[in-house]
Design a protein that fits this description.
Blueprint (H helix, E strand, L loop, with lengths): L1 H11 L18 E7 L4 E8 L8 E4 L11 H5 L2 H4 L6 E5 L22 H17 L6 E6 L1 H12 L4 E7 L10 H11 L5 H4 L23 E7 L19 H25 L6 E7 L6 H20 L1
Parallel strand pairs: 3-4, 3-5, 5-6, 6-7, 7-8
Antiparallel strand pairs: 1-2, 2-4
Helix pairs in contact: 1-6, 1-8
GO molecular function: acyltransferase activity, transferring groups other than amino-acyl groups
Keywords: Signal, Transferase
InterPro entries: AB_hydrolase_fold, Esterase-like, Mycobacterial_A85_antigen
Length: 313
């Protein structure tokens, strides 16, 4: 299973969810505000569902590999922003960041431009939320799916004083393990970027410094949620169930290996983070689940109840 997962990560790393059918767009349930990033030299649209009261925590929700610049997959494919209205915390969903792994790149990329997402997410956007919406500083959560599941765990580990809770849905938090490194490189390349511009040339540069598995010890005392499906079938989608009348072999080959790889990576990470003192860990490794939004929407709502609501309200 591990061999298959690593091969899938390497070969299919750039194909995340791009070929799945689009769901009905629901849009932002709050306001889309443009937040200037001096680090990137541009303004970033952010869907903000404000708590409406000062001193409340903020949940930052990151998009996947093919994040568009004018919306978020969370808005397009889920009802998460509607769900978060009236929950007593601020929700911030930044637009863009496709292929960036939401990190500070070492060099400007000819195709993906100047990426300083870590600076934006950990300094510029929190400062804006505090100034504009009265958000509490140091009372934050962060979550992501697939590419950004890796990013969320990485940012929470690198900035433990900023976040109280973190969630990864079908992420790949074993960044420097053989196979997964190559999958990340393939994903960036599939988006037109040069992965060496991100963290340098592997195994040198900043690859180890951005591996959530290696920095898991920094999550001591935090609430952590990790989920993934084995990808061996889906109660959400009969087209991914071998033997069903609507089985789609092409779709199965594109989506299932990604979830199998996420399951392997997530379970390796769970075993590591479970050893960290004081971590309040919730996991959901299911015997089904495909690499798609229906699955992630349900997991988000579970993580809200178990992980984010207790930490941020």
């Amino acid at each position: 299973m591990l061999t298959a997962a690593l091969a899938a990560t390497t070969v299919l790393g750039g194909l995340t969810v791009a070929t799945a059918p689009a769901a009905e767009a629901r849009g932002c349930a709050g306001n889309v505000e443009r937040v200037h990033s001096p680090a990137m030299g541009k303004s970033i649209p952010v869907c903000i569902v404000a708590a409406g009261k000062p001193g409340r925590g903020t949940l930052y929700l990151l998009d996947g590999l093919r994040a568009p610049n004018n919306n978020s997959g969370w808005n397009i494919n889920t009802n998460v922003s509607q769900f978060m209205r009236g929950k007593g915390v601020n929700l911030a969903i930044p637009y863009g960041g496709g292929g960036s792994f939401y990190t500070d790149w070492q060099q400007r990329d000819p195709r993906l431009g100047k990426n300083k997402w870590e600076t934006f997410l950990t300094r510029e956007l929190p400062n804006y939320m505090a100034r504009k919406h009265g958000a509490a500083r140091g009372k934050n959560g962060i979550a992501g799916l697939s590419m950004s599941g890796t990013s969320a765990l990485n940012l929470a580990s690198r900035h433990p004083n900023l976040y109280k809770a973190v969630a990864s849905y079908s992420g790949y938090p074993t960044v420097t393990m053989p196979g997964f490194t190559q999958g990340i490189q393939a994903s960036v390349a599939d988006m037109g970027g040069n992965p060496s511009n991100m963290w340098g040339t592997y195994p040198f540069g900043e690859w180890a410094a951005n591996d959530p598995f290696l920095s898991a010890g920094n999550l001591a005392g935090k609430r952590v949620y990790i989920s993934a499906g084995t990808g061996l079938g889906s109660r959400y989608d009969s087209s991914l169930m071998p033997g069903s009348p609507g089985f789609n072999a092409v779709k199965f080959a594109q989506m299932v290996p990604l979830e199998v790889a996420a399951s392997v990576s997530s379970q390796l990470y769970i075993a590591r983070v479970a050893l960290v003192p004081g971590v309040q860990l919730t996991t959901n490794i299911t015997p089904d689940g495909d690499h798609w939004w229906t699955y992630w929407q349900d997991r988000f709502k579970q993580s809200w109840a178990t992980t984010f609501a207790p930490a941020l309200r």
